[in-house]
Amino acid sequence: MLKLRAAGLGLAGIVLAVAATAQTPPSHPPVEAFGTLPVISHPSLSPDGKYFAAIQMRKNRATTLIYQTDAPAGTLPIEIPTGDLITAGITWTNNDRLIIVLKNNYRVKDYEKAEGRVSTFYRSIAIGADGSNPVVLLNNMKGMHVNPSTANIVGFDAKDPNHLYLGFFYPHTVVLSTEGSKFANDENPYHFDLVKVDVNTGDGEVVAEGEHGVKLETAQWVMDGQGSVVARVDATRGPLEEHLYLKRNGSFVKAGTFDANGFKDLSVYGIAPDGSGLIVLREDVNDFDTLEKIDFATGALTPFYSVPGHDINAAPVDRDTGRVMGAGYTDDTDHMQYFDPILQSLQTGLEKAFPGRSVHVVSKSRDVSRVIAAVSGPRLPPVYYYVNQTTHQAFSIGTSYPGLTEAGLGEVKAYPYKARDGLDIHAYLTLPTGKTPKNLPTVIMPHGGPNVEGDGLRFDWWAQFLANRGYAVLQPNFRGSRGYGKAFLHAGTRQWGLTMQDDLTDGVEKLVADGVADPKRICIVGASYGGYAALAGATYTPDLYRCAFAWAPVSDLPWLLRTNNPHNTPGTKATSVQTEQVGNVSDDFERLAATSPDRHADQVKCPVLIMHGERDTTVDIDQSEREVTALQKARKQVEFIRISGNEDHHLNFPESRINMLTVLERFLKANIGE
């Protein structure tokens, strides 16, 4: 039975170290309380549970800190600063070595742009729990400088904790006597190889070569947590397919070929709980995403786990066995069902201990005697608890937004409605505290993606900031969002600016009809695809909105398809997905041009504010520049703010978030009041 008690002996020092600056926040917190990065995130226990690490804010930067779980009170954590590099993740490789994944955005040479193209590079370092012996993984490998990532962890070996396995694009060469050294295949010299890495030195060595060729390459390795490969996935172009191979008696045996065009995909999660096969998800096959098993011995494909009416969106894997531990899905909130009775008992106990909250395990020791759980809700930013199942105690180790309390946050409720063609739209409405929900200034805030899991009954720092400032906020999961089955996903195919946009308009009309929104005080706000939707709203429904704000938006669809990714060559998975989602320039140019806001700037009536990071690698800043130029030529009211430095698409730095919220607050107040 899980019991909650005050912090005691072993963890007192940790609690003080994490939460020493926490005070009772005001009901109208400053913008910094919302705009800072989470004060604590990604907590991770070492396999033996003696340490935990977390990404925390120190001197306005995300920093990794390492704590001893049984340290005497007052023991300080080990701090590992990384400057302006962005900490993307952390994981333990053994009991006293931590892997830290860092990312940076660089401008590299590009054949299409004279000034070069910004690319994101991920690098992994290993460091001791005491902060000693930091090493860069794979630093001895040729081709490292051209690999965008050295963070693709394929597996571990519980018998050999000093090594792990990474996937790495390794350049293979052949020596010619008269011409010197030359790539063996000039068009595709890189194999996606499996590399064994010494976590104490960083050195790696190739232990398995991936298939390679102009139209064939290995895309995934699957391991068993004991240092052995159990499967491999190869991808081909023309036709675009994924080929699954199972390891039997030391050789790879083909187990199936799967269509990989567009949204179709084979996701291999790991090994079945009983070890008898692989657990996979074949997208776009069933009406909803379900887990299936491919038998190791026979290759037979059979149903494994499903939730009627919901897509499976997670399948966590145990690092020591490679086995799938459970499955997650989302209705209005997130749920996890574990296949292991011990883990499911733990999950049930946590849910009883925190009734009415979303709670799930984010890290565990190897023997599950110690875990870290995240507890959250629409008005509760994630709070992390260290749980000792031996002593049946749980201690708070930190809250992600200590400057916020429930008193200053708005009520969030489901707000479903029907689109004009009868399609059911799931949406979520955040209401300002202390205001009668009638005739309110309102913000429509569509999510990015667009083909991603949308919004739900969970904490959203951006929506809660707007609600705290007096605005009702509607977040519609328009058609094309994931989580609601294939029919709903495909209803958004090639519907940018069309029925996807109508879904937003229909939400506005319901808010007005219900008396919640003042029809004269509505603004549309979004980022990425949501930014596109904001520009489209101002352009194609100009009488509906009094202002539009876009962070890192798309504005020109033909230009996006031509330039967004120089590697989107015909026959690739990336090109196939983008073509299915948005369209094809040669076949769909008329529709794409008609739904590109920058080509119809003359239709805009309201003020527009655009912000964009200069090192955005997801949506190039020239998308914003094209929209701004078009609006200026049409003599429209537009403001453009470029965010310099290392900021990209994802608002990685607190100063960027704070700046964005400050500017947005001013913009909304000027145009729709409070």
Describe the protein.
By secondary structure, this protein is α+β, with helices and mostly antiparallel strands. The strands form 9 sheets. Strands 31, 32, 33, 34, 35, 36, 37, 38 and 39 form a 9-stranded mixed β-sheet that branches. It has a 5-stranded mixed β-sheet with strand order 1-30-29-28-27, with helices on both faces. It has a 4-stranded antiparallel β-sheet with strand order 2-3-4-5, with no helix packed on it. A hairpin with a 2-residue loop joins strand 28 (370-377) and strand 29. The longest helix is centred in the C-terminal third of the chain and has 19 residues, at 654-672.
Q: Summarize this, please?
A:
By secondary structure, this protein is α+β, with helices and mostly antiparallel strands.
Structural descriptors:
674 residues; alpha+beta; five-stranded mixed sheet; 12 helices; disordered N terminus
> What characteristic shape results from the CA principal axes?
globular
- What is the residue-averaged pLDDT? 90
Measured between the Cα atoms of the first and last residue, the distance is: 47 Å
Helix count from the secondary structure assignment: 12
Strand content: 35-45%
Unreliable spans are: 1-23, 174-186
Kindly state the percentage of residues in helix: 10-25%
What's the Cα radius of gyration? 25 Å
Task: Describe the main β-sheet briefly.
Answer: 9 strands, mixed
Quaternary state of the chains: single chain
Describe the protein's topology:
Layout: E1 3-4, H1 9-19, H2 31-35, E2 40-45, E3 51-58, E4 61-68, E5 78-80, E6 86-94, E7 97-108, E8 117-128, E9 135-136, E10 153-156, E11 163-171, E12 173-176, E13 180-183, E14 190-198, E15 204-208, E16 216-223, E17 229-236, E18 241-248, E19 251-259, E20 265-271, E21 277-283, E22 291-295, E23 301-305, E24 312-314, E25 326-330, E26 334-338, H3 341-353, E27 358-364, E28 370-377, E29 380-388, E30 393-399, E31 411-414, E32 417-418, E33 424-431, E34 440-444, H4 461-468, E35 472-477, H5 486-490, H6 499-513, E36 517-527, H7 529-540, E37 547-551, H8 557-563, H9 573-581, H10 585-594, E38 608-613, H11 622-633, E39 638-643, H12 654-672
Parallel strand pairs: 1-30, 34-35, 34-36, 36-37, 37-38, 38-39
Antiparallel strand pairs: 2-3, 3-4, 4-5, 6-7, 7-8, 8-9, 10-11, 11-14, 12-13, 14-15, 16-17, 17-18, 18-19, 20-21, 21-22, 22-23, 24-25, 25-26, 27-28, 28-29, 29-30, 31-33, 32-33, 33-35
